[in-house]
Task: inverse folding
């Protein structure tokens, strides 16, 4: 099919959305997605506008973005975005708590418009690009100030260089950041267990 599920008012629970030629879930209004698996689509979830809540989901193996969020009203909780073929999470604002973004073949998180991240793991993403200036873990856009609190940002790299984060429009507090970052009580201690499987970071 083209889209797995699309619409402006959606409630999706305990579902598997897979193997679509376009996006797994595409919505333009209000949407709740919980306890579901979204895999092997073009984009996993494309939130064009409106507001939504995503909780308890695994978004994996999609060919491009895991989640593309174009809405500042979106909230994502307790969700893993892993092993996607492009950027794991495009976050134009929104709230993200206990989100694991790992092993994506693209930027782990592109964040702008005051996106807020708490207890998130952004690890082992590979931005398959020769750029030495774009962060493979986190790339901060030019509008709004993003906030990262108690997050792990580690093991991310571009094709030829290890570049963990880029952009200055962000604050970091109580985070473990490879290479270090300015902020409040951040550390440079490797908190990852190299034997962990993707999705096992929290």
Result:
């Amino acid at each position: 099919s083209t889209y797995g599920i699309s619409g402006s008012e959606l409630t999706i629970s305990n579902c598997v959305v897979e193997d679509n030629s376009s996006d797994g879930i595409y919505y333009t209004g209000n949407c709740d997605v919980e306890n579901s698996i979204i895999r092997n689509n073009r984009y996993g979830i494309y939130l064009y506008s409106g507001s939504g809540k995503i909780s308890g989901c695994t978004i994996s193996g999609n060919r491009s973005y895991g989640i593309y969020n174009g809405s500042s009203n979106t909230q994502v909780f307790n969700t893993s975005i892993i092993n996607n073929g492009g950027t794991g999470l495009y976050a134009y604002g929104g709230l993200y708590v206990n989100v694991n973004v790992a092993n994506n073949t693209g930027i782990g998180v592109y964040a702008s418009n005051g996106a807020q991240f708490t207890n998130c793991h952004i690890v082992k993403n590979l931005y398959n690009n020769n750029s030495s200036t774009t962060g493979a873990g986190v790339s901060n856009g030019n509008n709004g100030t993003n906030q990262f609190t108690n997050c792990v940002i580690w093991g991310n790299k571009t094709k030829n260089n290890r570049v963990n984060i880029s952009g200055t429009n962000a604050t970091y507090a109580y985070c473990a950041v490879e290479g270090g970052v300015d902020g409040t009580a951040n550390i440079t201690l490797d908190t990852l267990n190299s034997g962990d499987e993707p999705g096992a970071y929290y």
